[in-house]
Amino acid sequence: MAEAYIVEAVRAPVGRRGGGLSGVHPADLGAHVLTELMSRSGVDPAAVDDVVFGCLDAVGPQAGDIARTSWLAAGLPQEVPGVTVDRQCGSSQQAVHFAAQAVMSGTSDLVVAGGVQNMSQIPIAFASRGAADSLGLTEGPFAGSRGWQARYGGQDVSQFRGAEMIARDWEISREDMEVFAYESHRRAILAIDEGRFEREIAPLEGVSADEGPRRDTSLAKMAGLRTLEEGGRLTAAVASQISDGAAALLIASEEAVRTHGLRPRARVHHLSARGEDPIRMLSAPIPATAHALKKTGMSIGDMDAVEINEAFAPVVLAWLKETGADPARVNPNGGAIALGHPLGATGARLMTTLLHELERTGGRYGLQTMCEGGGQANVTILERL
């Protein structure tokens, strides 16, 4: 099978809700990383075969196929098409998968993959729920479906419930989660102070660093927060932050590498996606990782760096228990609890960071996975070249 290479990867800083990127139109946010990506790669934008972007709640300024509108807002050739995908929080990781699969199939040579989300302007699910209300639609994606009711009954479907279920099923205490969350902030602040993110970030609107990490946080402050539900273990401190951001990668075939004189930085060694219990929802990275390792004949110890999205602390802690991964290699520069989680952009942000971390440390293999709505998870394994 043909190979798919990553030749460039760039991201915007991740903005805090109401922060420095909150007023940027999502199409302009996407356009920013696309412009920077093409500039850094040196490739003629007209040679790109397709643009695949992830985005959730594609309404309002995020509607109208934001992959396409971002490309056009960047002033790039209108002959290049774009498509927007939704695999919930893994949307832009799936965008990379689609891009790599197009190249590996031989049907494309250069594909841009990425994602964008402005959660300050369009909070998760609120906008799409409002659009449904305006049409008089009272049922959500689960209620009212006879097939769903027959299979899962009237069980509550919520990411918060899913995270609580994981904490209970894997016996993860509130204290365990708070220690993990504190470490996420510590690692992120260290990475910022040491300039580890500088190569991957394209500053925008005067923002040059991720806004999420809290230098003044402490275990004592976390312990004083109220739980998200009565009798629960989760607080806001152990959950990902609402954020704004965008990221993009250029995926190339061997032919494109030769034709355009490109330098491959990584090879897509493996890509897959698996599903699990949609009620528990967030535990799918565990079977998805096991599936990927079995398919490749690799072990978790082969991975020099891992990026697993910190949607909630118990997601990563349960995954660590099941995989036996070295915690020092997992989210070494912090995760979404500190850095933020701009939904449709996070998958591409994680992959951009993973690539740069492998280059910084000289590691060979890196694994990325993330939990997704509906009880799904993507897994990508990169080999640094």
Automatic annotation (TrEMBL):
One of its GO terms (molecular function) is acyltransferase activity, transferring groups other than amino-acyl groups. PROSITE patterns: THIOLASE_2. Gene3D superfamilies: 3.40.47.10. It comes from the Bacteria. InterPro entries: Thiolase, Thiolase-like, Thiolase_C, Thiolase_CS, Thiolase_N. The keyword Cell membrane does not apply. The active site is at C89 (acyl-thioester intermediate), H341 (proton acceptor), C371 (proton acceptor). Residues 5-255 form the Thiolase N-terminal domain. Keywords: Acyltransferase, Transferase. Residues 263-384 form the Thiolase C-terminal domain. Belongs to the thiolase-like superfamily. Thiolase family. This is Acetyl-CoA acetyltransferase. It comes from Planotetraspora silvatica. The gene is atoB_1.
